[in-house]
Amino acid sequence: MGGTESVQERLNAFVAAIQSSMAVKVASIYLLRPGSELELSATEGLNKSAVHKTRMKPGEGLVGHVALTARPLNLADAPTHPLFSYRPETGEDPFKSFLGVPILRGGRTLGVLVVQSNRVRTFTEAEVEDLLTVAMVLAEIIIDDERVGGKKGALKGISLAPTKPETVQGKAFAGGLIRGSAHLHLPPVAPANLLAENIPVEQHRLEEGITILRASVDAMVSGEAASLSRASKEIYETYRMFAYDRKWVGRLREAVSSGLTSEAAVERVRNEHRARLMKARDPYLRARLHDLEDLANRLIRALSGEKLGPGNKKLADDAILFARELGPAELLDYDRKKLRGIVLEEGSATSHAAIICRALGIPLVGRADGILDIIETGDPVLVDGEAGVVHVRPLPSILDSFNLRMNVKGELTRAYDALKFQPTVTKDGHAVALQLNAGLLVDLPQLDQAGADGIGLFRTEFQFMVSDFMPKLKEQTALYRQAIEAAGTRPVTFRTLDLGGDKILPYIDPVPEENPAIGWRAIRIALDRPGLMRYQLRALVAAGAGKHLRVMFPMVTTVDEMMQARALFDREIERAASLDLDLPAKVEVGVMLETPSLAWQVSAVCDHADFVSVGANDLMQFFFAADRDNARVSDRYDPLHPAALSVLKFISDRCKANDTPVSVCGEIAGRPLEAVALTALGYRTLSMPVTGIGPVKAALLKLDADDLAKVLIPQMSIESRSSSLRGVIQDYCAQNAIPI
User: Fold this and answer.
1) Do the strands 433-438 and 455-459 form a parallel or antiparallel pair, or are they unpaired?
2) What mean pLDDT comes out for the span 48-73?
3) Distant-in-sequence, close-in-space partners of 582: CB < 8 Å, separation ≥ 6
């Protein structure tokens, strides 16, 4: 059913095939018109003259009942049913048995598929299941016809594409607000022919396809990708390694030699990788699967004769790309000048596509469940990369509100730019350092773009996770050195590897745990496997030669763990000195306070730490026993709860008493309302995502921290019955014109 057939011809062929295969007298397709009427659109067995003339409303007659309930209806003697509606123009008088199933797609009813027989009988369960399967295939066919052919691909007077406004909540993976028109990214179709007619010819096809694939990847790495940051370029260089991987190509050759077509060989090897990698829970490891999917799709396109190359796929001027998943190479297939944003049904914040989007400044929303079922190419779309919301075919009121937000955001961005080089000093004279959270080279230019006072959290595990092999000592050293040099005289705080939990290295088998967040992770792994920790510390010491080196250990729960970790660092300093290597000009070793146990021993840990950094994300989830990645419980606590603020104040006070600098890093540090509260509690260094620096600075410049402290502290006593002080802080900010 392919080629240049019209939609009507394909539907006619479809009902004829159903009538023959199910041995029934009648097979008919009713499709839902825009005015919510069902129209007989194709039939084999009823009068052809009734096609496009017989219509009924959902709920009217047996067909209407199936459409209304979206459930199958199986009747042995349909004319005796009370809902039966006789339409003389159809000529259905002789027929008794009736089986109708809904044609569904993405929760929407597109129509009804009906078979009828002239004898009284009930269709079997197997026949019902078969017809449901056929209806599912039919839904895809008629939607794809419209997608490919637009108005020409639709039936006369019938549009099956969705038309009502929709809003989908996803996850924000790359920030920004953008409006544009939808463009569907359609991956290659699975192969129809599985067995090769001539194996030597098929082997030659495969080799040609691999050659074309590799040439396109080489062009991508040396061309478009070469203009990206080093971290982003490394992703494409890793991708190229996949294309030249001998094992991958060897498995393809084996499959073709066994008698498969080249396309079927790609599918077999793809499924082998899926089976292995889908067992991994770690999102970074899953990202490798997406790269392999991308590569497999690219090879199938090469085998089909499609021209491959960066920017080769055409787009409208304001295109927003919609896909189930997107690989880094597929991203560069599109014209960057026209690509305004991306929306994915799947995806992750740590995928290669997400990293590249952040580097290119392309808003990306992922985990938009079901979005592909309600979107069509050309639909107007609003993408909120800040909140992770996508508005499809928005109402005028939503469009107006969104345009206002875009204008306000533009004005605020200009206002924040004007404050970029202004020191962050509160109205009552407290200087606050606003630092950046980072982890890859792509983050480093943001230091100057945002006017940050340094890097308060450099997540060193990112380098390990975007690589398919353990980074060598010189590679680690080079990354850390570049971060220090990019910061200039500003401090950079390196957090040692925070592995475990949901962060597993692609080249190390994960250890199954029922509660990985509180399992074998971070400093626990480091102390049990000191070789890995010392290897990293050696790179950090080398990178800090002649510079100011700040290192902190994550997930420390006891003072003893901090002492052991510091001893490992001291051994690396002693080793470098014994080898007469250049040493850091200044060394500070700190602790990341993320557990309630260490919070109550903060004075003791200050004896062994040069600074304390409060990891607010983990501290709050452990404090409230609520997984911050679990949507069912993550919003059940408020970090501005008086008990939570009491703990944060206790930490600040004890660090001050021990003359130990203390900071907060995490999401709350980058939110203006929480940031003013932290400043009132005595914190003078906050580390946050780049998007938080401008808004937080604007708020703190208007804040009288000591005055807010007088309001908050009395309400943080152990006798407090309040579930949150958020409202109190909001009122204070409103009364004092503090922008939050």
Assistant:
1) parallel
2) 91
3) 545, 546, 576
Backbone angles phi, psi at 352, to 5 degrees: -60, -35
Q: Which residues of 548-557 are buried (b: 16+ CB within 10 A; e: fewer)?
A: bbbbbbbbbb
Mean pLDDT, range 568-577, rounded to an integer: 95
Identify whether the C-beta of residue 648 lies closer than 8 Å to the C-beta of residue 654: no
Distance, C-alpha 165 to centroid of its chain: 23
Q: Which two tokens stand for residue 541?
A: 């010491």
Q: What pLDDT is recorded for position 207?
A: 92
- DSSP collapsed to 3 states, 240-294: HHHHCCHHHHHHHHHHHHCCECHHHHHHHHHHHHHHHHCCCCCHHHHHHHHHHHH
* Dist CA 74 CA 99 (whole Å): 5
pLDDT in tens, 142-187: 766 555 554 454 555 555 555 678 899 999 888 889 999 999 887 6
CB 383 within 8 A of CB 397: no
Phi, psi dihedrals of residue 14, rounded to the nearest 5°: -65, -50
**Amino acid at the residue 264:** A
What distance in Å separates the CA atoms of residue 477 and residue 536, rounded to the nearest whole number? 9
Q: Report the candidate in 238, 300, 296 with the shortest Cα–Cα distance to residue 272.
A: 296
Location of structure tokens 């997107």: 326
- Which pLDDT band holds residue 326 (cuts at 50, 70, 90)? confident
pLDDT value of position 722: 87
Whether the CB-CB separation of 680 and 705 falls below 8 Å is answered with yes
> Strand order in 389-392's β-sheet?
166-169, 389-392, 380-384, 177-184, 319-323, 339-344, 364-366, 171-174
What 3-state class would DSSP assign to 608?
Answer: coil
Distance CA 601, CA 647 (A): 12
Indicate the pLDDT class of residue 40, thresholds 50, 70 and 90: very high
Q: Which residue has the higher pLDDT, 470 or 279?
A: 470
Q: Which residues are catalytic?
A: 352, 665
Six token digits for residue 76:
């042995």
How many whole angstroms from its chain centre is CA 240?
A: 23
Per-residue pLDDT tens over the stretch 268-312:
887 776 665 555 555 545 555 666 777 888 888 888 887 776 667
User: H or E stretch including 302?
Assistant: helix 283-303
194-226, pLDDT tens digit by residue?
788 899 999 999 999 989 888 888 877 766 555
* H or E, element range at 113: strand 108-117
Answer whether 0.70 is exceeded by the pTM.
no
pLDDT at residue 22 greater than cutoff 70: yes
3-state secondary structure of 662: strand
> Averaged over 561-569, what is the pLDDT?
94
- Which residue's entry shows tokens 């019209």? 6
* Cα–Cα dist 723/584, whole Å: 47
**Helix or strand (DSSP H, E) at 339:** strand 339-344
Collect all residues with Cβ–Cβ distance below 8 Å to 680 and sequence separation of at least 6.
703, 705, 706, 708, 709, 712
**For residues 127-148, average pLDDT:** 76
